[in-house]
Design a protein that fits this description.
CATH class of the largest domain: Alpha Beta
Order of helices and strands: EHEHEHEHEEEEHEHEHEHEHEHHH
CATH superfamily of the largest domain: Glycogen Phosphorylase B
Strand order of the largest sheet: 3-2-1-4-5-6-7
Largest sheet: 7 strands, parallel
Helix content: 25-40%
Number of domains: 2
CATH topology of the largest domain: Rossmann fold
Radius of gyration: 21 Å
CATH architecture of the largest domain: 3-Layer(aba) Sandwich
Number of strands: 13
Structural class: alpha/beta
């Protein structure tokens, strides 16, 4: 029997902007030997724009009925969905029309009908998950633009004369933790260089942050949807508990993690065992807790080195190759089962 990989049609459906789009694009590159299609709801304008910019000519749909027609028209062998929790009806729709369905970070009931569910935003609870769920740090796909910085944390030295703290909260930062964190940092009595990176979807007043930054030298507010370079240049990162800690752990940087909401607070990855200082929910954050964590990191470099080594020991840089093999195996094995 030939070991040659059979070409399949793979359709990606993406539920929201941000890292899910990046992950799907990167997976598409890993599976480039297959025919690749992308689709998203017409409401997801940022997703569609990003795919257009990358040259993928995405398909769009309005309703589940439109999605069903799209699946019937293009007859994909595989659907990879990311960026949303599917309900049971959507999960059954996909599985009824497509031989192989793979869901990334799907915490909805629809995942129960999938071929595999892959979760990088896994939870700490010890409840047994279904056998077709794959959970853990290996589910994080390293973006192409992050690869040059992999494992560089212990080698980098700051380009600034002061310890450089980078504050970055993903996407909308609904509770304005960027403002709250900066306010707490400015009350510290140690000299710091501070950069606050704001996402384009940041809904609060930028002027309030800039006005606050004027009161201290070496403090700046920047617009930045992709803070990878800033993270690589930092001495300390303060960030959300979603995908940003994974980016940090690929590079290797001291990192304080603050959950933006109750959902993020359930994520198990950005905790001490993996080299992070986790401070819990941002809306409950006390100034003294953040300040103590910053002081501990800045004044005790040996602790920071140990934290970085924990992050780098995860070897996240190997994830893409391992995921490529994993996905190809599932696709080909399921295809053989169907043709029996």
């Amino acid at each position: 029997m030939s070991n040659q990989i059979q070409q399949k049609t793979i359709l990606f459906t993406i539920g929201r902007a941000g890292y899910p789009v990046t992950r799907c694009i990167q997976i598409a590159k890993l599976l480039a030997s297959h025919r690749i299609l992308f689709a998203a709801s017409e409401k997801q304008t940022l997703v569609l724009q990003k795919l257009d910019q990358q040259g993928f000519a995405p398909l769009s749909y309005v309703s589940k009925a439109d999605l069903k027609k799209l699946l019937q028209e293009h007859e994909p062998d595989v659907v990879i969905s990311d960026g949303g929790d599917t309900d049971i009806d959507e999960g059954k729709l996909l599985s009824s029309l497509v031989p192989v369905t793979l869901h990334f970070d799907d915490f909805g009931e629809g995942g129960k009908a999938a071929t595999r569910v892959v979760q990088s935003l896994y939870h700490e609870d010890r409840e047994q998950v279904p056998s077709h769920y794959v959970i853990g740090p290996s589910a994080f796909i390293v973006p192409e633009e992050l690869e040059p910085y992999a494992n560089s944390g212990l080698k980098q030295t700051t380009a600034l004369p002061l310890p450089h703290v980078v504050v970055t909260f993903a996407d909308a930062d609904a509770d304005n933790l960027s403002y709250r964190t900066l306010r707490h940092l400015l009350h510290l009595q140690i000299p710091l260089a501070i950069t606050v990176a704001l996402h384009s979807s940041y809904p609060h007043s930028r002027d309030d942050l800039k006005l606050m930054a004027l009161g201290r030298k070496q403090t700046r507010i920047v617009d930045c949807d992709d803070p990878i370079q800033l993270i690589s240049e930092s001495d300390l990162v303060i960030c959300d508990a979603s995908y940003t800690p994974y980016h940090v752990a690929v590079i290797g940087k001291p990192c304080i993690v603050i959950a933006e909401d109750e959902r993020e607070a359930q994520h198990a990855f950005p905790k001490e065992a993996n080299g992070f200082i986790y401070l819990g929910l941002g809306r409950k954050l006390k100034q003294s807790h953040l300040q103590n964590a910053v002081m501990e990191t800045i004044l005790h470099p040996n602790r920071s080195v140990r934290a970085i080594k924990k992050q780098l020991s995860l070897k996240l840089g190997m994830n893409n190759l391992n995921m490529q093999r994993f996905l190809e195996k599932i696709i080909q094995e399921e295809a053989r089962e169907i043709t029996k």
